[in-house]
Amino acid sequence: MSDRNEGPEHTPDGRYIVVDGVLWRATDPSLPEERRQALVNDLMDARRAVGAAKRAGDTGAEKAARTRVHAAKVALGERGPVWWNDGAPDYTRCKLANTRYAES
Q1: Angle subtended by helix axes 33-56 and 59-76, to nearest 10
Q2: pTM for the whole structure
Q3: Residue 70: how many CA atoms within 13 Å on its side-chain side?
Q4: Does 47 fall in a domain?
């Protein structure tokens, strides 16, 4: 595993972050920094909206906010089609120990 100076641990190829031994797809590194930051801002706003809707008991607003979270994560490359093009499988949500990264 590579250990970047900031943020969570990444796999050597940078495709995943490792959280509690589980792989989660990392943000597409080809996104321009300005675009990535705008999407992260959208994501955080949407996550705050989920929390506010839950506290208010507003299921319609919560559903809408969760849709915004999903859209931001797809745009970041963390969900939806993989951002790499070498045919490698997607190991998102897989335990690190059960993937090819276990040996890294």
Answers
A1: 160
A2: 0.87
A3: 8
A4: yes
**Number of domains present in the structure of the chain:** 2
Q: Judge if 64 and 93 occupy the same domain.
A: no
Q: Are residues 26 and 5 in the same domain?
A: yes
Name the CA radius of gyration of the chain, rounded: 15
Domain coverage including residue 102:
1-30+87-104
Question: In angstroms, rounded to a whole number, what is the distance separating the alpha carbons of residues 10 and 95?
Answer: 14
CA distances from 97 to 16, 66, 75 (A): 14, 30, 28
Per-residue pLDDT of the chain (104 residues), as tens digits, is 544 456 889 999 999 999 999 999 999 999 999 999 999 999 999 999 999 999 999 999 999 999 999 999 999 999 999 999 999 999 999 999 999 999 86
Place of tokens 């490359």: 77
81 in a structural domain: no
